[in-house]
Write a structure and sequence with these properties.
- The structure is a single chain.
- The protein is α+β, with helices and mostly antiparallel strands.
- It contains nine helices and six strands, in the order H-E-H-H-E-E-H-H-H-E-H-E-E-H-H.
- The strands form two sheets. The protein has a four-stranded antiparallel β-sheet, with no helix packed on it. The chain has a two-stranded parallel ribbon with strand order 1-4.
- Strand 2 and strand 3 form a beta hairpin.
- Helix 2 crosses helix 4 and helix 8 runs antiparallel to helix 9.
């Protein structure tokens, strides 16, 4: 029994060690580009949309199939139920084909649907990439915020321990001791809350990237990536803006639909058909004439021209009018979108430059707060400043550093949003 227990314990330790080692080996260091690639590969919505795009391509490739002839073959066999002694068998084949003026618009429409599907897919990919990049840099900001809280908490703890020594030597009042103790202990819940928030964000980030929750990830990057933005040069033509291209694609589709509606209301259609059949009657005992007779060999052509479409109150005429109105509305939307895009891009560029100026000011504010804290700490150590003044200086320094990190993230988000609006690769504007 002891040997069995010993074996089981050893086996448990071995298995635990193996899985721990496996998890350790599976830990990953991710750059922002790595995160984007993982999200693109594992995003369910993108995978579903890719299936739809592939189907649209297949439909576009075979959009001519409406002119493919319809072929039918049939056979018959009958036994007599009267006094005749013959049974009958026959076979026939028929071909038919319809030619309509909407063939051109059907082929063109299938191609447009495919191209529009590609645009929609690319837009979805960019949306995923934009969200992942923002999440990535937000996690970097949160991590730096945690590190800052940890450093301030360690400093407050050291100060509290030093004050305990001073208090025990009679060099510090009890009020100052309690004040330093409270200052340290009040930081603990704030740090723990920030840590929980960060852990939850990391878990959500893993889920977005399709990474198992038991895999530890380390983000490789920092908030300095977008610090050096001296001037933004925008070379993208307004017609190449994704939002403008999307409406232009709708206009092209509406024009094609209008043409198809006109063809349906006014255009002639041609039907071609051909049939051929054979039949034979044989004696039941299989003795007799075995020759086959032709039962049908006909070629048919018919032309149909709709006349009611020329009446202004007809369904066809009203459909054409509705399509014209839709097209006009889309053209107005296009002009408005071009103006809106120009204004949005200009305002975004100004906002980024303003954010850069504010960033420079906050960098100087951190430098000033650091000098103030250093001087206050030195004065406190020499007894010329009280503990409250030192804590206020420490709080001001921490606030300045947090504001600086927030401004960096704000700047990064603004640049990413402008890049997304322009439809250019992320990282084009203002990176080092």
């Amino acid at each position: 029994m002891k040997k069995i227990v010993t074996f089981l314990v050893a086996y448990f330790i071995l298995v635990t060690s193996f899985f721990a080692q496996s998890e350790k080996l599976s830990n990953r260091v991710l750059t922002v580009d790595d995160a984007v690639m993982l999200a693109a590969d594992n995003n369910i919505s993108l995978q579903r949309q890719k299936i739809s795009v592939d189907l649209s391509k297949k439909r576009s490739d075979f959009s001519w199939n409406s002119v493919s002839p319809s072929i039918r073959a049939s056979g018959s066999y009958s036994l007599p139920f009267d006094n005749t002694d013959k049974w009958t068998m026959g076979a026939s084949v028929s071909l038919s084909m319809n030619l309509t003026p909407s063939l051109y618009t059907s082929i063109r429409g299938a191609k447009m649907n495919y191209e529009q599907g590609i645009l929609n897919y690319e837009a979805a990919v960019r949306t995923v990439e934009l969200n992942v990049r923002k999440l990535f840099y937000n996690l970097l900001y949160t991590k730096e915020y945690l590190n800052l809280l940890q450093r301030n908490m360690d400093t407050a703890k050291q100060r509290y321990n030093l004050n305990k020594d001073k208090y025990n030597r009679g060099q510090l009042s009890e009020l100052d001791l309690f004040s330093s103790q409270y200052n340290y202990e009040s930081m603990i819940p704030t740090f723990e809350s920030a840590q929980i928030s960060y852990d939850n964000s990391i878990a959500s980030f893993k889920q977005t990237l399709g990474i198992a929750q038991n895999v530890e990830i380390e983000l490789s990057g920092n908030l300095e990536d977008y610090d050096f933005i001296e001037e933004i040069t925008i070379d993208t033509a307004i017609d190449e803006i994704p939002s403008v291209k999307a409406i232009q694609a709708q206009i092209d589709s509406a024009k094609n639909q209008l043409l198809a509606t006109r063809f349906t209301a006014w255009g002639p259609s041609i039907s071609l058909s051909y049939s051929y059949g054979k039949q034979n009657s044989l004696p039941i005992m299989g003795i007799g004439d075995r020759s086959w007779s032709t039962t049908g060999n006909a070629l048919g052509v018919s032309v149909s021209i709709p006349l009611d479409g020329y009446l202004p109150w007809s369904t066809g005429a009203l459909s054409v009018a509705a399509q014209k109105a839709t097209l006009k509305d889309l053209q107005l939307q296009l002009e408005n979108q071009k103006t809106t895009a120009e204004i949005s891009i200009l305002n975004s560029a100004k906002s980024i430059m303003q954010a850069q100026s504010q960033l420079d000011l906050r960098i100087k504010n951190v430098e000033l707060a650091q000098k103030t804290y250093d001087m206050t700490l030195n004065a406190y150590n020499h007894g010329s400043r009280d503990l409250l003044t030192l804590q206020n200086a420490a709080d001001s320094l921490m606030s300045a550093k947090i504001n600086l990190m927030q401004q960096k993230f704000t700047l990064i988000s603004a640049v990413l949003d402008l890049e997304n609006t322009l439809g250019i690769p992320f990282g084009t504007l203002g990176t080092k």
